[in-house]
Design brief:
The complex is a heterotrimer. By secondary structure, chain A is an alpha/beta fold. Chain A has 6 helices and 8 strands, in the order αβββαββαβαααββ. The termini of chain A are far apart. Chain B folds into 3 domains: 112 residues, no CATH class; 143 residues, no CATH class; 161 residues, no CATH class. In chain B, helix 11 crosses helix 13 and helix 11 packs across helix 14. Chain B starts with a helix and ends in a 14-residue tail after the last helix. Helices cover 46% and strands 13% of the residues of chain B. Chain C has a single domain, classed as Amino acid/polyamine transporter I, CATH 1.20.1740. By secondary structure, chain C is mainly α. Helix content of chain C is 76%, strand content 1%. The chains are: A alpha/beta, B alpha+beta, C mainly alpha. At the B-C interface, helix 14 of B face strand 1, helix 5, helix 6 and helix 12 of C.
Chain lengths: 194, 483, 350
C-alpha cells in the first residue's frame, strides 16, 4: 500500500506539471547577434535570428535601453526570444558611452545572457555589412580571435569587458573596433572611463 | 516389497490414462518358473535398435534355469544387460525415468526396477549460438538435452572438482535441473541459498530457464535489471564457474542460468579474453558508451528540443528546428511514437520467417520511414536519433529489455520536465541499481561498492599474467552478504 | 527499509564530503565583499579546523563502537524522546536549509517558469525512495556522484582558465574581524556533516581518524578552487548575480564550447537529492533503528510543508537562510550532545 501511495505521489506532479511551459525548438527564437546603433536620434536595437539563409533575419526595435528593447521585441515581434545563445554584441562607436553605462550594467544582472558572447565596437559601415550578409558575423568572430591572439590585453568577451569596466582601479581598458571601409577590419580601441 | 509386472503395468496405464505414446513390451523369460517381465518406454524417446541389442535380445535368449526372482534380477543386472547405463530404481521413480528416455525393466518378484539408458530422441545438434557469436572462440553452443549440455561443460573442465547436482522442478513437467559448480570455488552459502530458491519454485511446468530465473532473483530488489545471467556458450559458463559462480542447466533449453550476475558482466565478452588487452578495453568502452547512448540519446534530444534548444550547436539547431517545424506532432510524442513503431517492427522482424525478414526491413526502413519523412509526418532528425539509439541498444543485447523500458521512461520524463527530469530519473535508477543484489552480491560490485582489486576486469582487462595470479571469487566481492 | 549491513567508513566519509561540497555549489552572497581571496582562505582553514573539532566527540563515540542513536537506546524513555525530537527537528531544518536555495536557484536561473513547490515535491518523492533504501545504498550512489563531481569540476575550472586574470592585490590577506566572523561563519556550514556522522557512523566499519580529516581537506580544496575561479576568472561579474558557482559554470568555456550550467545543475540536483535522502534516512533511524517507509514519508511531508511555508513567507525564509542558526544547531547536535553522552559513558565505564 505505501508503495502505491508513493508511486501516485510521484506520478501526480508529473501529470499536473504538463508540458505547457516548454519552448519547443521549432517555435523558439534563438538570437545570434544583437547590434545597437543610433538612427534618427534614437537608439535602434537589432536582433538577428539564428538562421542559415544568406541574408540575415533581423528585427529592429527602437528603444531607450537594452532592457526595453528586449521586452518590446519579445512582446511585439519575437514571442519566444532567447538570448542564451547570443554570440556577438555589436555596439556602434558613437553610442558606446551610453551603452556602457546602462546596458552593460543591466546585462550583467541577467542570467539568461551568455557571458562568453563577443562584444565589439564597430562603425556604421560594419553594421551595414552585418545587416546585409550572414557571413559578416563569421568574419568578425575570426577577426576578434585574431585580434585577441595578437593583442592579449583586448577584451573580446562580455565577461572581460564588464570586469574591466567595473574595475575601479583601472582608468582605461581595450576593446576591439571593427571598421569596414572596403573589407571588415579589426583594431584595438582604448576606452577611457572618464 | 516384491513387484508384480501385471500390477505395475495396470497402475502405469491408469496413470497415463491410455496415452498412445506409452509402450509396454511384456515377455516371458526362459526359465523354469516362466517368470514374466516387461519393458516400459515412451514412444520416440528411446533408441529402439539399441534397446533390442543391449537389452531385449539378451533377455529373451538367456536361459535363467531354476534361478529365484532375486537371483534372476542379479543375473540380469550383472550378466545379461549389455548397456553401460543401468540404474536400480523404485516404482515411484518409474515415470520420471521413462519420460526422460530410459527403458525401465520390471521383473515379477524382484524388489527393484532397472532403468536402462537407451535414450534416442531426436534433438538439435551442437551449433554456434546465434545470440552470442564470437570471432575467436569456440563454435559450440548448448543444445536442448541436459546430458549433452553437461558433457559440453565436462569436456572443458576435466576435473573431479566439477559437480553436477540434480534437482527436479515443476509439479507436472518434472523438469530436471542441474546445479553445476566447482566444489573448491563456489560458496556453500550461495549454494544453499540457490537450492532453497529452486526448492521454493512451485510452478506447474518449467519449460525454459526463464521460468526459473525469476525465482532466483533476490527478494525486495529492483527487477528492472536482471540479477540472473543467461548464456548459451559452454566456454562462457566454464569461465564463470571458475570465478565461484553457479550454473543452473534446465533440461530442454539451451539457455543456461548463471548466478550471481553483476552489472559489469554485461559489458564483458568471450572475445575480450582472446583479443589484445587494449582492444578489449576499447570494445568495453564502446559498449559502455553505447549503453549510455541507447538509454539517454532520445531523452536528451527530447529535452533539448522541447526545453533547451540553445544547447544544440548552431548548425544542428537550424536543421533540427526546420525538420521539426514541418511535422504535426510535438517532439515528445514524435519520439515516443517512432520508438514505439520501431519496437513493433523489431518484434515483427523476430517473429516472421527469415525469408520474409528482408521484405519487412525494406517495408519498414524504406516505405514507412522514408515515406513518413517525405510526407512530413515525422522528422528526419528524430528518426535518426531513435535509429541510433536502437542500434546502440544491440551492442549490449542482454540489457535490451531494461534499456527499452528506461528509454520510454526517460523520453516521457524529458518531455515533461526537461534535462532536470532526466537527472532526477537517473538518480532514482542509480539508487535502484545500487540497492540491487544478486544472491547477496551487490549488483554494481567493482563500481559501487568500489574495489581497485576487481577493477582489473571492468573497463580495462588486465593481461593474463595479472588475471591468472589469483582468481577473484564472486563471494569475495565487497559487502557480499554472508550467512 | 532493509536492515543495514555495515558498510565502508571511507565511502561514508566520501558521501559526507560531497554533501559538504554542495554548500559552495549553492553559495549565494553570504561572503563579505571587502575581504581578499587569501583572507577568505584563512577563514576557510579556520572554519574547517573547527568542523574537524565538531567531528571529534562522535569520533570517540565511534571508537567505542557506538553512534549517538545507538547510545540513546539505553537511555530513559523521556530522555530518548527529547533528544530524538531535537535531532528530527534539526534534520528537518537542515533539509529545508538546502532545499530552499536549491529551488530558488532553479527557478531563478534555470527554469524561470517552474513552481518551486513542484520542484521540491518531486525531489522529495525521489528522496523518500532513496532514504527507504538506506544509508548504505545512498553512499554507494555517492560514488557515481563523485565521478560526476570530478567531471563537472574539471569542466568548470578548466573552462575558466582562459578567463583567469590574476590580481596581486587579492593575494594580500586583507579583511576585518567582522569579515572573518562572517566568512568563517559561512564556511562552518559543513558542520552539518558531523551531525550526520554522529548519527549514522554506527553502521560503518574500518573507521580511521584520518578519514574525516581527508574529507574536510578535500572539501576545503574544492571551496578554495571555487573561490579562486570566482574571484579571478569571473571577478566582478559574479557579484552582480546570485548563486556565483552557477555564474562560474555559465562563464566557463573551451573556445566556443560552453553550456556547462547543465552539468552544474545535474551536480547540484544530485547533491541536494543525496543530502535530503541522508537526512530523511537519519530522521527515520532516530525514531526507529530500522526505519520504515511511513516514517520517511511523514518526515518528507513535514519537510515539504516547512519548505512551502518558508518559500511563501519572507520571515520564515530568513530563519531558514541563516548559516549562523544552522551552525549553532550543528554544534549542539554534533558536539554538545555527543560530548554529554561521552562523559556519562566514561563515568559508567569507570
Amino acid at each position: 500500500m505505501p508503495k502505491k501511495v508513493l508511486s501516485l505521489l510521484c506520478v501526480l506532479p508529473l501529470l499536473l506539471s504538463g508540458c505547457g511551459n516548454s519552448h519547443q525548438i521549432e517555435s523558439a527564437a534563438i538570437i545570434e547577434n544583437v547590434s545597437v546603433e543610433e538612427k534618427d536620434g534614437q537608439l535602434l536595437y537589432t536582433f538577428y535570428l539564428l538562421s542559415d539563409s544568406e541574408t540575415p533575419e533581423a528585427v529592429g526595435v527602437p528603444a531607450d535601453s537594452f532592457e526595453e528593447a528586449q521586452g518590446l521585441a519579445a512582446r511585439q515581434y519575437i514571442p519566444h526570444l532567447s538570448l542564451a545563445k547570443l554570440e556577438l554584441f555589436l555596439i556602434q562607436k558613437e553610442v558606446m558611452h551610453e551603452i556602457m553605462q546602462r546596458d552593460i550594467e543591466y546585462i550583467s544582472t541577467q542570467a539568461s545572457f551568455s557571458p562568453v558572447a563577443y562584444v565589439t565596437l564597430c562603425d556604421s559601415a560594419a553594421l551595414e555589412k552585418v545587416k546585409k550578409s550572414a557571413h559578416a558575423q563569421e568574419t568578425i568572430e575570426k577577426q576578434l580571435l585574431l585580434c585577441k591572439s595578437n593583442h592579449p590585453e583586448v577584451n573580446i568577451h562580455y565577461l572581460s569587458v564588464f570586469n574591466s569596466y567595473a574595475d575601479s582601479r583601472r582608468d582605461c581598458f581595450c576593446v576591439p573596433y571593427i571598421t569596414a571601409e572596403e573589407e571588415l577590419k579589426v583594431s584595438k580601441l582604448m576606452i577611457h572611463k572618464d | 516389497m516384491n513387484y508384480s509386472v501385471k500390477e505395475i503395468t495396470e497402475r502405469l496405464q491408469a496413470q497415463f490414462a491410455g496415452s498412445a505414446d506409452l509402450s509396454v513390451r511384456q515377455f516371458t523369460l526362459k526359465s523354469k518358473a516362466k517368470r514374466s517381465a516387461a519393458l516400459y518406454t515412451i514412444e520416440g524417446m528411446v533408441d529402439k535398435e539399441g534397446l533390442a541389442q543391449s537389452s531385449l535380445n539378451p533377455l529373451l535368449v538367456y536361459d535363467f534355469g531354476s534361478q529365484t526372482a532375486a537371483q534372476t534380477y542379479q543375473t540380469i543386472l550383472h550378466t545379461v544387460l549389455a548397456s553401460s547405463d543401468v540404474t536400480e530404481i523404485t516404482e515411484e521413480q518409474l515415470i520420471a525415468f521413462i519420460t526422460s528416455g530410459f527403458a525401465v525393466l520390471a521383473l515379477d518378484g524382484a524388489e527393484k526396477l532397472l532403468a536402462i539408458g537407451v535414450q534416442g530422441y531426436a534433438f538439435r545438434g551442437v551449433s554456434e549460438p546465434e545470440s552470442e557469436v564470437v570471432q575467436r572462440g569456440a563454435r559450440e553452443g548448448f543444445t536442448e538435452p541436459l546430458r549433452v549440455n553437461m558433457s559440453l561443460i565436462r569436456r572443458r573442465i576435466k576435473s573431479p572438482d566439477l559437480v553436477f547436482e540434480q534437482l527436479t522442478v515443476g509439479k507436472t513437467s518434472q523438469t530436471q535441473v542441474m546445479l553445476c559448480y566447482l566444489k573448491s570455488a563456489a560458496s556453500p552459502y550461495l549454494l544453499k541459498k540457490l537450492r532453497q530458491r529452486i526448492g521454493a519454485c512451485n510452478l506447474e511446468t518449467v519449460l525454459a530457464s526463464g521460468y526459473l530465473a525469476e525465482y532466483l532473483e533476490d527478494p525486495h530488489t529492483s527487477r528492472l535489471f536482471s540479477g540472473v545471467g543467461i548464456s548459451e556458450r559452454p566456454d562462457t559458463v566454464c569461465g564463470k564457474l571458475t570465478e565461484g559462480r553457479i550454473a543452473v542447466i534446465v533440461d530442454g533449453t539451451p539457455a543456461v542460468i548463471i548466478v550471481p550476475r553483476l552489472f559489469v558482466e554485461e559489458f564483458q565478452g568471450v572475445d575480450d579474453y582472446s583479443n589484445r588487452t587494449y582492444y578489449a578495453a576499447l570494445i568495453r568502452v564502446i559498449k559502455s558508451l553505447s549503453f549510455g547512448v541507447s538509454v539517454y540519446l532520445p531523452a536528451v534530444y527530447t529535452a533539448l528540443a522541447q526545453f533547451h534548444p540553445e544547447y544544440f550547436p548552431s548548425w544542428i539547431l537550424i536543421k533540427t528546428a526546420r525538420s521539426l517545424s514541418q511535422t504535426p506532432l510535438p517532439v515528445t510524442l514524435e519520439v515516443l511514437l517512432i520508438t514505439f513503431v520501431y519496437e513493433i517492427m523489431k518484434e515483427a522482424g523476430l517473429r516472421i520467417p527469415k525469408s520474409l525478414g528482408h521484405a519487412v526491413s525494406i517495408v519498414g526502413a524504406l516505405v514507412i520511414g522514408e515515406s513518413a519523412v517525405t510526407a512530413g509526418i515525422i522528422s528526419s532528425s528524430t528518426l535518426m536519433v531513435v535509429a541510433t539509439a536502437a542500434i546502440c541498444s544491440y551492442v549490449t543485447s542482454p540489457l535490451y529489455p531494461p534499456v527499452t523500458m528506461l528509454r520510454f521512461v526517460f523520453i516521457t520524463v524529458a518531455g515533461l520536465l526537461g534535462l532536470w527530469g532526466i537527472v532526477l530519473a537517473s538518480a532514482v535508477v542509480l539508487i535502484s541499481l545500487c540497492s540491487k543484489t544478486s544472491l547477496g552480491v551487490p549488483y554494481l560490485s567493482s563500481l559501487s561498492p568500489f574495489s581497485w582489486r576487481t577493477m582489473r576486469d571492468v573497463f580495462v582487462r588486465a593481461n593474463w599474467k595479472t588475471l591468472s595470479r589469483h582468481t577473484i571469487k564472486v563471494q569475495n566481492f565487497t559487502e557480499t552478504e554472508e550467512r | 527499509m532493509r536492515v543495514e549491513v555495515k558498510f565502508s567508513s571511507k565511502r561514508f566519509l566520501l558521501t559526507l564530503m560531497l554533501c559538504a561540497c554542495s554548500v559552495i555549489l549553492l553559495q549565494n552572497h553570504d561572503l563579505s565583499r571587502d575581504a581578499s581571496f587569501t583572507f577568505r582562505l584563512l577563514c576557510l582553514a579556520a572554519a574547517l579546523l573547527f568542523c574537524f573539532g565538531c567531528y571529534l566527540p562522535s569520533v570517540f563515540l565511534r571508537k567505542r563502537g557506538e553512534d549517538i542513536l545507538s547510545v540513546l537506546q539505553s537511555r530513559p524513555k523521556w530522555e530518548r524522546w527529547l533528544i530524538t525530537a531535537f535531532y528530527c527537528g534539526y534534520f528537518r531544518y537542515t533539509a529545508v536549509y538546502f532545499l530552499l536555495p536549491y529551488t530558488d536557484m532553479f527557478t531563478k536561473k534555470y527554469y524561470t517558469e517552474a513552481s518551486p513547490c513542484l520542484i521540491a515535491l518531486l525531489l522529495l518523492c525521489c528522496c523518500v525512495y532513496a532514504a527507504f533504501k538506506g544509508a548504505n545504498v545512498i553512499t554507494r550512489f555517492g560514488i557515481f556522484l563523485f565521478v560526476l563531481a570530478m567531471v563537472t569540476n574539471v569542466m568548470l575550472f578548466g573552462g575558466s582558465l582562459s578567463s583567469l586574470q590574476m590580481d596581486a592585490d587579492s593575494l594580500v590577506p586583507r579583511g576585518t574581524l567582522g569579515d572573518f566572523l562572517r566568512d568563517a561563519g559561512y564556511f562552518l556550514t559543513p558542520c552539518f556533516t558531523a551531525v550526520l556522522f554522529a548519527c549514522l557512523s554506527g553502521y560503518t566499519r574500518n573507521f580511521r581518524l584520518r578519514q574525516p580529516l581527508i574529507a574536510l581537506g578535500f572539501t576545503g580544496l574544492k571551496y578554495a578552487l571555487v573561490l579562486f575561479f570566482i574571484t579571478f576568472a569571473v571577478g566582478e561579474y559574479a557579484l552582480r548575480q546570485d548563486y556565483q558557482t552557477f555564474v562560474l559554470s555559465r562563464a566557463a568555456h573551451f573556445g566556443s564550447f560552453s553550456g556547462f550550467e547543465s552539468l552544474y545543475m545535474a551536480l547540484a540536483t544530485m547533491s541536494v537529492f543525496m543530502i535530503i535522502a541522508l537526512l530523511l534516512c537519519a530522521m527515520a533511524k532516530a525514531v526507529n533503528r530500522n526505519g520504515s517507509l511511513p516514517v520517511i514519508v511523514l518526515f518528507a511531508a513535514s519537510v515539504f510543508a516547512v519548505h512551502f511555508a518558508a518559500a511563501n513567507f519572507d520571515s520564515a525564509k530568513e530563519i531558514f537562510n541563516s548559516p549562523s542558526l544552522l551552525n549553532l544547531l550543528s554544534v549542539i547536535a554534533a558536539v554538545v550532545i555527543p560530548l554529554f553522552y561521552l562523559i556519562i559513558g566514561r563515568k559508567r565505564y569507570a
